[in-house]
Write a structure and sequence with these properties.
Helix content is about 75%, strand content about 0%. The chain is mainly α. It has one domain: de novo design (two linked rop proteins) (Up-down Bundle).
Length: about 190
């Protein structure tokens, strides 16, 4: 009878340790995904802060391109909207719209040689390209964290109980039109 009790206690202890380790691992992955999403929003905000300066610089040369400036301003606002940033799918759509609007802005800039030589414009363009690179890196980090979390949630035996603990799969940050954002916005001078 003593052996049976010892075996039962050992099994309960092993199951308890497994549940404890699984729960803590999922919490750690969940926090990592939240941190990665925060990195994306910080970079999106940084880029959004650069856009008004870029628009003002281009406006000085291309005053009759009002529709382009309005489209960029609307797209910029959408990328930092808290409701949009709460959902990776909505943020991805806003990213695609923003990328298209920026292509229009840079197309306008190409038509003005004196703008292309403007140091402020060149500096803003370089900062924007750097920020786009940081957004891509943050997106890769976020998607890597989501992959790890989703894999752990779907693995057996975790799949049997993790949803009951409040863990759920997270959305990847995938842009609907990946061709639209394949490259950072750039102007060839």
């Amino acid at each position: 009878m003593n052996y049976t009790l010892i075996i039962v206690i050992a099994v309960v202890a092993i199951v308890g340790i497994f549940l404890w380790a699984t729960y803590n691992g999922l919490v750690r992955l969940n926090v990592r995904v939240d941190e990665a999403w925060s990195d994306i929003t910080v970079q999106l905000k940084r880029r959004a802060d650069l856009i008004p300066n870029l628009i003002e610089t281009v406006k000085g040369y291309a005053t009759h391109e009002k529709a382009v400036f309005e489209n960029v301003t609307k797209a910029r606002a959408a990328t930092v909207n808290p409701e949009v940033l709460a959902h990776p799918a909505a943020a991805a759509k806003a990213e695609g719209d923003f990328s298209n609007a920026m292509k229009s802005l840079f197309a306008v800039a190409e038509a003005y040689p004196q703008l292309q030589a403007n140091q402020n414009f060149l500096s803003l363009q370089a900062e924007l390209t750097d920020t786009e690179d940081k957004i891509m890196a943050a997106r890769r980090f976020y998607n890597g964290g989501v992959r790890e979390l989703n894999t752990k949630i779907k693995q057996f035996p975790q799949v049997l109980f993790v949803r009951g603990l409040g863990f759920k799969e997270r959305e990847f940050f995938e842009v609907a039109d990946s061709a639209a954002i394949a490259d950072a916005p750039a102007v060839k001078f």
